[in-house]
From TrEMBL:
EC number: 2.3.2.26
Protein name (Swiss-Prot/TrEMBL): HECT-type E3 ubiquitin transferase
Listed GO biological process terms: protein polyubiquitination
Keywords: Transferase, Ubl conjugation pathway
Record domain HECT: where: 334-673
UniProt keyword Cell membrane present: no
Encoding gene (name): HECTD2
Active site: 641 (glycyl thioester intermediate)
Amino acid sequence: MTYFEQQRDLLKLPPICSDVRQKQRLSIDTLPPEVKAPFPSDPIIPLRTKTTKEFQEDMDRAVHSGDWREVREFYLTTFDSFIEINAAFKANGSFNTIDDSGVNAKFVNAVYDALLSTPQDIQKSVLKGIINSLLREWKGTSTYVIYAHLLRQIAALSEADHHFLVHWLKKLSARRFRQLVERLLQFISTRLFPAEPDELPPLAKCSWWIPSATKVLGLFNAANSVSSPPIMPFTDFYNITLEHIDFMEEYRTWQNYGNSNRFSFCQFPFILSTVVKKAIIQKDSEQQMISQARQSLVSKVSRRQRVDMNLLFLNIKVRRAQLLSDSLDELMRKRCDLKKKLRVTFVGEAGLDMGGLTKEWFLLLVRQIFHTDYGMFTYMKDSRCHWFSSWKCDNYSEFQLVGTLMGLAVYNSIALDIHFPLYCYRKLLTPPTAPCDQNALVGMATATLDDLQQIMPELAHGLGELLNYDGNVEEDFYLTFQVFQEEMGVVKSYNLKPGGDKIPVTKQNRKEYVQLYVDFLLNKSIYKQFAAFYHGFHSVCASDALMLLRPEEVEMLVCGSPELDMSALQKAAQYEGYNKTDSTVRCFWDVVLAFPLELQKKLLHFATGSDRVPVGGMADLNFKIAKIEVSTDWLPISHTCFNQICLPPYRTRKELKHKLTIAISNAEGFGLE
């Protein structure tokens, strides 16, 4: 099921409860006859011929002369009823197509924008007309109440009407689209946390406000999702106000009732920020960890065995010299303990794991696994990402280890320096929860040429040229439905369809060829590798919360955010041996804040092992600047396990900049060339 299909299904949600459904039905029934659906077969639509140009000329005359009579008459007539609104703004003819709503959007925008420049009495008259159309009564109702009833009517439209509306909304200008989205988000925030307690009706009396607004916002999100490119970033649909509600209660409601008649924001995950989703996953993980530990303790006690506190942890003991094989053995042997708190010990080394050893274990494993010499993953230089090697073997347990490692990182809130394309995370969510049937297909996400572009841009460009070629495809390209792939130095051939080696690629079948080739490269040729990787990840992250996530959000949870804010890092920084007023520290921040983005990324990588930021922002890094009493000839050093950078007491800004630039520019990356 595609993301848009999921959102479309969510839009079918009934009202919050049965009594609201009854009230909603009564509300619609009390509307004037002309707004009931279906409309009468032959409604009498008055003829209105005013154009955008004529209206703007009327406005200009009114502004200069102060005579608003003509403009007032237009507004009073237009907003007297929905029939009049249709007459003014809807073109003649039937518009039952997703391509054209038949609304003169330019005229609507002009009339709407101009309203703010009209005298107060005109604005009040328009407002009264809208109230009469929606509520059939005027009792000094606030604009919030009017807006809420409008949203309710939109939310109550049929699925077919919503389908049309989604496609019409995406034709709005980006500015107007954003305005409407921001207004809906503000409405939800204000209803949740009103500035004045008496500003709005009691929440118990208008419990349908937030579900209606969220459902309408879902229409805008769906319109944004089917637009290419999207009208606005998906992150702009986040409502950060929801970070201050009891989101675990929302999550439990969603778990218990699903997409039923019990409203939960989790039914509309696009509105929840990654911070909220991360917190839900963490708390869900903690509950699973506690449950696992409790079961182990109860089992021991029931058998009257001595209780070992190590039962509460996933204890990983590894030798540095055999890091990969030991880690694989430990995780396979203790796969029933994966949901306990992770604790790592390096054999023969003293030290209690307070988080630093765990992070070092992750960093060292990632470095070894993704090294090009190891062969599990291929580093794509053009796209600067890793992809699964297609070589075949009898045991894919090491791919399962990588998946488990990624799952443990999410589970234990550790960002990894992994460079997978976005398509990989889409595959991880296909499906978002692992099927019970071990033979069920997993990771087979629909693959497009755009997805291949993320990984193999040169090949994607070549296939694009094949699709657009005007000459004789069969004679000039001389291709068949057979492709060749190098595996461990041996070139092997594969048929994209039965008898493919004997089927020439022509102008008529080239689209099928490209689709099959892309699917082969991104799905079928690496199926066993990715299936092991998928099951490894989901063996740890088997949570309903994954269904709330987009692929981009999974990537952020695994790797952190690419958005750097060095000023925020400065505010959150801690110091050891220095204080923030020392000249060396002041020089450090002067230099770092003036660095170009590329050097800032290198600094972050140098200090933390990754050039990305945790989902919670720079404050979650616990970044520390420590003083080392050595000669200023020394370069800065770092302890990536503790997100710490150590600075000699450099005396000048120039000296610090020179030494710091050398240090961060020569730090080795993980598997990158």
